[in-house]
Amino acid sequence: MLSKNTIKYITSLKQKKFRDEFRQFVAEGDKLVSELLLSYLKIVEIFAVKEWFSAHNIAGNIKVTEVTAFELERISGLTTPNLVIALLEIPDNEKFETINFDNLILVLDEIKDPGNLGTIIRIADWFGIKDIICSNHTVDIYNPKVVQATMGSIARVIVHYTELTTFLKEIPKNIPVYGTLLSGENIYTQDLTKNGMIIIGNESKGISGELLPLIKTKLLIPSFPENNESRAESLNASIACAIVCAEFKRRVFSC
Questions:
Q1: Which pLDDT score, from 0 to 100, does residue 251 have?
Q2: Residue whose C-alpha is closest to residue 153's, from 133, 182, 130
Q3: Domain ranges across the chain
Q4: What is the pLDDT of residues 178-189, one digit of tens each?
């Protein structure tokens, strides 16, 4: 039976201030937890119903607690609890010296929507992008909605938070820096490289003014309205990210 203190502790991790204080976060669901069991992330404890434990072999160094469906519902952040919840340690991802500048790197400027960030992490994982650099005002990667939206890709993509202007000024001078802008040039006619920084701006404001001078190539995803009909004002940040990543990778593999 779960104690009141355990329930209080797990539910407190929905808030960033407690995640920062205790350096732990929550992951829910069979697919997500199963992926994390195979990752570098350290699982501290697993809370699951009996049938979930019966179907999984858990390493002896991980604490396990069997709970009832009712208890799972009390600690779950989902509308429909999904058999298992895990507590994990928040890793130290501030080691920028591990970043490989020979690869594409996503740079996220104040992405606010948890679903967008989680989806962008999945996109990066799909296209083999290992590092994402976030502004300090981007939504927290360990927000439960972000973790859920990654569908396990959080285990394979390293997300760093920093002050972007300083970071971009300090990267090697030969690194291409791309930005997605409505004032940019058609991405399908531009020269694209196999490495570089791709800046994705805020959902409503776009890329911050202080970052614009640091962009070396401004890219536009063109629209294709028929007969000059009206079109959507802009694309969702995660959709734009997927299109841009796909075009970069298409160029590399079609050469």
A1: 86
A2: 130
A3: 4-89, 96-254
A4: 999 989 999 999
DSSP state letters, the chain: ---HHHHHHHHHTTSHHHHHHHTEEEEESHHHHHHHHTSSSPEEEEEE-HHHHHT----TTSEEEE--HHHHHHH--SSS--SEEEEEEPP----GGG--TTSEEEEESS---HHHHHHHHHHHHHTT--EEEEETTSPPTTSHHHHHHHTTGGGTSEEEEE-HHHHHHHS-TTS-EEEEEEEEEEGGGS---SSEEEEE-BTTTBS-TTTGGG-SEEEE-----GGG----S---HHHHHHHHHHHHHHHHHH-
Task: Read off the pLDDT of residues 42-92 as tens digits, 9 standing for 90 and up.
Answer: 999 999 999 999 999 898 889 999 999 999 999 998 888 789 999 999 988
- What tokens were used for 8? 């209080």
CA dihedral 102→35→135→209, nearest 10 degrees, is: 70
pTM of model > 0.85 = yes
Do residues 237 and 111 touch, judged by C-beta distance below 8 A? yes
Domain 4-89: give its CATH code: 3.30.1330.30
User: Does position 224 have pLDDT exceeding 80, yes or no?
Assistant: yes
Please tell me if the domain spanning 4-89 has the same topology as the one spanning 96-254.
no
Q: What percent of the chain has pLDDT over 70?
A: 96
- 96-254 fold: Alpha/beta knot (3.40.1280)
Give the gyration radius of the chain's Cα atoms. Answer: 20
